[in-house]
Amino acid sequence: MTVINDIFVMKSKVFSGEQSLKKLAEIQGTKACIVSDQMMEKLGYLGQVVDLLQSGGISTSVYTGVKPDPDVSIVAEALQVYWESGADVLLALGGGSVIDTAKGVLYFARQYAQEKDAPFVNPSFVAIPSTSGTGSEVTDFSVITADGDKIVIVDNFIAPDLAILDSTLTKQLPNKVVVDTGMDVLTHALEAYVSTKATDFTDALAEKAVQLVFAHLETLYHDPADAEARDRVQNASCMAGMAFTNAGLGIIHSMSHAFGGTFHIAHGRVNSLLLEAVMEYNANLGGKAIDRVCERYARLASLLHLPARTAREGTVSLIQAIGKLKRSIGIENGIRELGVNQDAFDEALSRMVRTAMVDRCTPTNPRQPTAEELEQIYRKSF
Fold first, then answer.
1. Which stretch of 8-12, 281-285, 347-351 has the lowest confidence by average pLDDT?
2. In this prediction, what percent of the chain has a pLDDT beyond 70?
3. Smallest Cα–Cα separation from 33: which of 121, 138, 141?
């Protein structure tokens, strides 16, 4: 019997490289609603985007109220601007929070139209990331906060139609943001690589993303002006996004969503502090190592020219290399060093575990954890 699987979907068209922003002048449409934030306006990038669109005959309406970890009220405000604009182009300019907000606008606009049995005109959706981390410019994931919890929306409808990777927009990122977003890239690639839905297609993208992060993130941290490092890390971010939007993620993200919704600490930073403990759990290094997971981690270790004579050795080598990379870019040794109070952590722990257990990222983790195991990982990471 022949079995045909829908194993890889790539909705977004991608332009990359410095000056690729100029492709905006070729966008088809009449009115654009731009979702952005005040930093993009302050740095002048918003003005550049407006000028490029207008040079192509597209008028603009702008919403710049996006804040980190956007909640439903932010999405509602942006949605109002979008409705009033009558736009046939929706454009997100900014980091992951901005792109997530624009995805929320698109998702809820369609949902509202369906509930009211009203016509819905699907706009062209353009995403221009100003950070190199989330890969949100090519994914069908959006994370929105509601009542203090981070809610993950997964729908191919919200994947952007066009992604523009112009690394000049990342020139002025603070080192902390470079680190947080860069480690988010690495986490996306590692989780997609050992996901239960991984394929040859997602593996190729994840492997390359891991190699690019190890080759260029430390350089970018020490020299944000290095154009090659900026380009390569941004490419890695997009590749990792392509990988995980098809393969899914794992409990690093599940636990990070729960933790970030509680303590409001940068998502990539939390990922980096959970990373090694979750890898040890996934590979079952404390017991009888899981062959498939160890073999996958060891394959990555081999690609990075680390010791990998056995699957277990390769896994340990990769975990140690990640620890070395983290130290080289100034990442803390544990959650406690972020200033999180022990009592507050203990009080929130059971709630975070419950939230992580039902997160959309948990089912594709290579091991299905118990609540007790998630609690142990949180405590070890603390």
1. 8-12
2. 98
3. 121
